[in-house]
Amino acid sequence: MFDQATLQQMKDIDINTIDPDTVVDASEINIDINLPVPERMASYAQQIGNPYFIKVGKVIVKMNHPDTTTTANDCFERYMKTC
After folding, report:
1. For residues 60 and 52, what is the distance between their CA atoms, to the nearest angstrom?
2. pTM, 2 dp
3. In this predicted structure, what is the pLDDT of residue 63?
4. Which residues is 27 bridged to in the sheet?
5. Residue 53 and residue 63 in contact, taking contact as beta carbons nearer than 8 Å
6. What's CA 67's distance to the chain center, in Å?
7. Whether 65 contacts 75, CB under 8 Å
8. What is the pLDDT of residues 24-50, one digit of tens each?
9. Rounded distance between C-alpha atoms, residue 43 and residue 35, angstroms
10. Distances (CA, A) of 29 to 4, 16, 62, 66, 69
11. Banded pLDDT at 59 (limits 50, 70, 90)
12. Distance between CA atoms of residues 70 and 60, nearest Å
């Protein structure tokens, strides 16, 4: 998983300056729902690279998470449990 400093660096990247070739297309991500949640999370993290950016076709989308006490890792774990 990502530590907080790394996540902040990834989050701070300007969408206008990111290299499109470094962003993973959503259609290329595969999550095995039969794996335990920690393994799903590790697989997703390995596949996505930067969890704040994803490509949908030719469009780059920057994910935004609310500023709460809930961490990005908490949100990510909750998401993986629903897959």
Report:
1. 10
2. 0.70
3. 84
4. none
5. yes
6. 16
7. yes
8. 999 999 999 899 988 988 898 899 989
9. 10
10. 23, 23, 16, 24, 28
11. very high
12. 25
